[in-house]
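Training component of the fellowship. As part of building independent skills, the fellow (R.M.) carried out the full modelling exercise for a liganded target. The chosen ligand was zinc ion. The inputs are recorded below so that the supervisory panel can assess the work.
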Amino acid sequence: MSFFIFILGLCLGSFLNVLAYRLPRDISFIFPRSRCPHCQEKISSLGLIPLIGYLIQKGKCAYCHKSISLRYPLVELFTGLGCVLLYHWWHHQYPEALFLSSVLFILAIPLSLIDIEYFILPDILTLSFVPIVWAFQAWHHQFLFSLSGSLLGAGILWSLAYIYEKIRHIEGLGMGDVKYMLIIGACLGPTKTLWTLSLASILGSFIGIILTIIQRKRLHEVMLPFGPFLGWAGFICSLIP
Ligand SMILES: [Zn+2]
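Fellow's submitted model of the complex:
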């Protein structure tokens, strides 16, 4: 069963790679078939197989022989291993919790990749899933719990963004982060939403301070996307029974 889930996870990771590459570039994520980013040649069927394709081609495009980013096989492997971990974590216990943790895990991967590269969190990956999770929670008699998590998370972040902009006259937090909190709060409910915001702030400050030292800049000069911290803090909090 673990092996089967791992294979499914690898395929899912391959799809998440496509999402993370194509969404910010405004390319349809269904058509056309994947191409080499260097020479635009279509990737062969063998090359499309997750992980194996990369290994067979020795990390190089079959046509132009330029290197394929290690990011693609790493994301596939990470997704595969994450799916196995999630399955065992919630095995036979709470199918609802497995669903909600999976939503946060699957969204955090492409959203982190896109936010680190482009400093955006596309609405299609945040807002579109909010009604689905609310409906799922309502079906399990947890609609108010879910709604209050969304409103609390997004409300706190929106207030902080508003105050920051009033004081410093620059945008500190984007609306993408506020919308991301809608879906995270919908999955977690109010208490874990507060934990998520606290954990994300601690992790973000920690990494921010390290970057100021490495890049020899002042704290407000370091550009750091907040989406990955929110996403992974939310996922970690979702694992707590
Ligand atoms: Zn190529």
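The panel noted the following from the submitted structure. The CA atoms of residues 59 and 68 lie 5 Å apart. Residues 36, 38-39, 41, 61, 63-64, 66 surround zinc ion (CB under 6 Å).
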